[in-house]
Amino acid sequence: MVPNLQSGMENVYVDTSAICYIDGKRGELYYRGYSIDELSRMSTYEEVAYLLWYGRLPRRSELREFRKSLSLERELQEEVYSIMELLPKSVNPMGALRTIVSYLGNLDGEPSVTVEDVYRKGVSVTAKIPTIVASLWNIKNGREPIRPRKDLSHAANFLYMLHGEKPSKDEERAMDVALILYAEHEINASAFAVMTVGSTLSDYYSALVAGIGALKGPLHGGAVEEALRQFMEIGSPERVEEWFWRKLERGERIMGAGHRVYKTYDPRALIFKEYARALGEPELYAVAEKLEELVESHLAKKGVHINVDYWAGIVFHALGIPPELYTTIFAMGRVAGWTAHLAEYLSHNRLIRPRLKYVGEIGRRYVPIEERG
Ligand SMILES: CC(C)(COP(=O)(O)OP(=O)(O)OC[C@H]1O[C@@H](n2cnc3c(N)ncnc32)[C@H](O)[C@@H]1OP(=O)(O)O)[C@@H](O)C(=O)NCCC(=O)NCCS
Q1: pTM score, whole prediction
Q2: At residue 287, what are phi and psi to the nearest 5 degrees?
């Protein structure tokens, strides 16, 4: 037994932060002190990004300026479209997003990471990720990328670039709320990756690339897509029970369930559920509701409850977004939180360098290759 060793860094505090508070027992989440319920009902993604970065809600003129600066940064340089054309058609969209964000770093001649730089680059990259994601999808499917519009909100512009038509007010709102729900979540694997790279005083893009890489994994952001696929695989509510027990017998996991911090229903999942009920395909919703019942009655004793990724896929599916893109949408929202954490950490930076407890041998004698047989 090694003192202070927390497997998976569970419950380890690496710093203080004023960005996000999670009460994992009560199922509460606050961005800069504002509850996620209020923000998802009353705010917009642009306002939430401002709040996360600058610590307060913007005045009307500040929000107008902030929205404008984001809309002016949406377009990509022509060579970025050319690079996207060169990617193999089979590429995983998160892998492609990682490559393109990395390439943006090569186009930005200023590698420094002061706090001001982080915010400035944050506006540029936050604005561009929706353009990258929609363009990657259009190019992969043999279509011309649809160029961004400056007159639409962040959420509406993404759906416009993906589908080629302006979304309805309800669709725009559902997308906006999804981005708010994904905007921030304290120091999870991806935020920690961003902060670790930032703490070496590497550049903003390298830090973000690390975050995208961490988010891609099925135990983190990749679960959104997997959760929807499992509802589709089950197919109908009558088949849920058998599917559930077979899954557990095989020692496999229900995707969109379980969380390192929440030991109750994830508050973001409750909000996604409302949108899934209102917009989702009724059969998919019925399957998910039945599976939810089983998770909540049989896995709660292990602290496993429905998480943010469970209902999100049903909402995205209703918005006509293909499952392959779900994790990139998570990244589209989370870039605000990553940027906030990077700026906050850099304001009092200390190199992140934990330890590993060595349990191997020491003092082994080197045997020359001729004597090893
Ligand atoms: C998110 C996750 C990695 C957190 O895991 P963790 O804190 O390391 O929890 P553990 O792996 O220690 O699991 C604790 C117990 O709950 C079980 N469990 C956890 N998540 C489960 C799930 N989704 N389905 C079934 N059982 C689950 C584990 O099998 C383990 O059981 P055991 O004690 O009998 O071995 C995990 O819940 C998971 O893999 N979930 C599915 C993927 C997902 O939805 N990810 C998105 C997170 S927002």
Answers
A1: 0.95
A2: -60, -50
